[in-house]
Amino acid sequence: QAEIRHKLLYSLNDKQRQAVCLIDRPLLVLAGAGSGKTSVITRKIAWLIQGCGLPARYITAVTFTNKAAREMKERVANLVQGREARGLTISTFHSLGLDIIRKEVQALGYKAGFSLFDAEDAKTLVRDLLHTHAEADSEKVNWIYQCISQWKNDLISPEQAQTQALDKESLHAAQVYALYQRHLKAYNAVDFDDLIALPVILFEKNPQVLARWQASIHYLLVDEYQDTNTSQYRLVRLLVGERQRFTVVGDDDQSIYAWRGARPENLLHLGEDFPNLSVIKLEQNYRSTRRILKAANTLIANNPHIYEKKLWSDMGVGDPIQVWCCDNEEVEAERVANEILLQKMKGISRYKDFAVLYRSNHQARLLEIKLQSFQIPYKISGGTSFFSRNEVRDIMAYLRLMINPDDDNAFLRIINIPRREIGPATLEKLATYATQRGISLLTAIDELGLEQILKESALQRLRRFKHWFMKVIENSERADAIEAVREMVQDLDYEAWLHQNASAPKVAERRLANVWTLVDSLQQTLTRLQEDQPEAGLTEAIARLVLRDILEQQEAEDESDKVHLLTLHAAKGLEFPHVFMLGVEEDILPHRNSLETNALEEERRLMYVGITRARQCLTLTLANERKAYGEKIDTSPSRFLDELPADDLQWEGRQGEVKDPEVSFQRGLDQLEMLKSLLKG
Ligand code: ATP
Ligand code: MG
Asked: Which residues are catalytic?
């Protein structure tokens, strides 16, 4: 016992040790960036298992992104291995919700093999629903989709939304919400927000089901607690129940998901809802140099605070923070790529020690080009989703229909891909027929009454499709499901279809490669899933895959030596020795749509998150001139730069400033050195 104590606790500071060992009542750890909040969680999991003898299967830890969950798993695996760790749950809120729905599918009134709609599917459904009512331009569709999502995050039912509506627009959106829910149910589908909302609704309605889940979670831990929304908080409250054994950690200064319904006030509600809550604040930062930390603290002091926090660091003063003013965005990208190469050539840093952060995805494009031209390997997170590609969506629709033949959305997407000459008139008649009888389109195809309303040839085409498709399903159930999927893709002759529809053979080949990537990752997901749940099949694997993409958007899992390119949002919780932040300008950071007070504070927190990712070197860059909407515009430096401690900044190329000849000379020499070693290499 003493040995375990020593192993798990000796390297922690007093406050951290307290936080790990306090287990008989609810605990909130509230602390700034880099103070070891996530470390407390991982250490505490090990402590619960080894120090307190709690079997791992009774412990659940939740966080927000898959990347964070994976990192947490790795950190725990260093402390607890093998049989001891068996059954431990470390997941995202959404995959926990998916698990609950999957296991309680009947109590929820859904059928097994439900479909999971991502934002794209959900918007398509909204658009279809609007079509029958009013004009359906994409702005309107987006707005209504956002309303529905917010309502769900706030646990507001369609009926409540309708009574609460204050104007015509909101009322209309609320009506669409009601229709939307009905359709989802008919399709046996759930959307992303349902993954949290449905379990909450179920638990509140059904105490027996809740009791079962409470009995299976004896200790709950939540990371990044400041980003929980109303429904997530309610889920936490329900799961911990009377036992109230939980630890949540968070930092109100890093709350950056208000736009997705996050409620940092949840930190305050905890104290009200759990009167015996302990609050522990951590004050030592183990990540960043003193200069970086000071910059972060000075900046965030401009925001109002729920809790006061002090942070200090023992990591040395460190280098000044660089601020590079570049002539234009091209120079900015090139300068960053150049610097990375230079540092790498000096042999002290690896590529993966560098991260380049930006406010929005499109800012990465130029940088990608420069990195490619320098042959610097990189990986990009939070970019365009793999699953938003047409070919991937096509095959996904086939997969969805395989596991859930009632998914009419999927049916309509693929019925003419590849071409089967089933026209819109036929489909409309089929749909009317199916709606009248309350059955799905695929089911309706076999109904006898159809002969009356459809042309013989049309009906035959439909039935031929169904016959073929049922065989595919049978195959997938009988033998190796993934093999059945492979055969289906081949049988479809999807390749030929891609070639007919692509501008060049190369394009078609790339698309086909994406399809096989999809099938491969399905296989991997299934294999991994079956390690924990031997009974898991195609249904679970597909849901997992969609969920992973929604959360991670094609974030590669490789740990190879590559520069990280990520949005500020995606960087949360991570750390890197060198951090570049691009486009520190007005209209970018703060973003042009967020100049009113609340939004501005959130932008400041985003900047705070960015700064605090850096361990040793932080470089902020801006361009004096930038292209926007095809025009060149003059930019101005972000107001946040004025909020940083001037003494700790080292500017380069500031307008109206003569360039320091010595600095440029040194840079020239450095580059010469680099070229030499490149030539040698
Ligand atoms: P963020 O707010 O960014 O999520 P955090 O509070 O979760 O940060 P961690 O990621 O847990 O902080 O820790 C930051 C760094 O400090 C990590 O590299 C971690 O290994 C290190 N660290 C944490 N606690 C200690 C400690 N007691 N001694 C040495 N290093 C520590
Ligand atoms: Mg953390």
From this structure: 37-38, 223-224, 254, 613
In 3D, which of 129, 12, 104, 584 has the Cα closest to residue 322? Answer: 584
Pairing of strands 649-652, 321-328: parallel
CB 223 within 8 A of CB 37: yes
Angstrom distances, CA of residue 624 to CA of 187, 293, 358: 52, 27, 17
**Structure tokens, 422:** 């089933």
Q: Encode pLDDT of 178-196 as tens digits.
A: 999 988 888 888 999 999 9
Alpha carbon distance 244, 24 (integer Å): 8
With a CB cutoff of 8 Å and minimum separation 6, the contacts of 639 are 586, 590
Name the burial class of residue 661, with classes exposed (0-12), middle (13-18) and buried (19+) by CB atoms within 10 angstroms of its CB: exposed
Q: Are 246 and 223 in contact, with CB atoms under 8 Å apart?
A: no
- pTM of the complete model: 0.82
pLDDT digits (tens, 9 = 90+) for 517-529: 888 888 888 888 8
Q: Which two tokens stand for residue 328?
A: 């234009």
* Residue 301 CB-density burial (10 A; 0-12 exposed, 13-18 middle, 19+ buried): exposed
Other residues' Cβ atoms within 10 Å of the Cβ of residue 587 = 18
CA 172, CA 166: separation in Å to the nearest integer?
11
Which protein residues are within 6 Å of ligand 1, measured from CB? 11-13, 16, 31, 33-39, 251, 254, 286-287, 573, 575, 612
Measured in Å, residue 271 CA sits from the centre of ligand 1 at 25
**pLDDT surpassing 50 at residue 555:** no
Question: Could you list which residues have their CB under 5 Å from ion ligand 2?
Answer: 37-38, 573
Which tokens sit at 212? 């079962």
Give the count of beta carbons closer than 10 Å to the beta carbon of residue 53: 8
> Does residue 375 sit in helix, strand or coil?
coil
Instruction: Specify the 3-state DSSP secondary structure of 657.
Output: coil
Give per-residue pLDDT as tens, 32-57.
Answer: 999 999 999 999 999 999 999 999 99
Q: Which residue has the tokens 């638990």?
A: 203
Q: Which protein residue's CA is at the shortest distance from atom 2 of ligand 1? A: 33
5, 51 Cβ separation under 8 angstroms: yes
Question: For 411-462, how does the pLDDT look when each residue is reduced to its tens digit (9 = 90+)?
Answer: 988 998 888 888 878 888 898 898 888 899 999 999 888 888 888 999 999 9
Which mutation among 16, 17, 38 tests ligand 1's pocket best, with the greatest number of atoms within 8 A of CB? Answer: 38
**The pLDDT value given to residue 135:** 60
Pocket test for ligand 1, best of 39, 280, 289 (most atoms within 8 A of CB): 39
Contact 93, 62 (CB under 8 A): yes
Cβ distance 221 to 59 under 8 Å?
A: yes
Of all helices (H) and strands (E), which one includes residue 396? helix 390-403
Distance 34 CA to ligand 2 centre (A): 7
Mean of the per-residue pLDDT values for the chain? 88
Cα(472)–Cα(100) distance, integer angstroms = 29
- Both structure tokens of 435: 């709606």
pLDDT of the residue at 661? 56
- Pick the most confident of 65-69, 79-83, 258-262: 79-83
pLDDT tens column, 276-304:
999 999 999 999 999 999 999 999 999 98
385 known ligand binder:
no
- Within 10 A of 278 (CB to CB), how many other CB atoms are there? 15
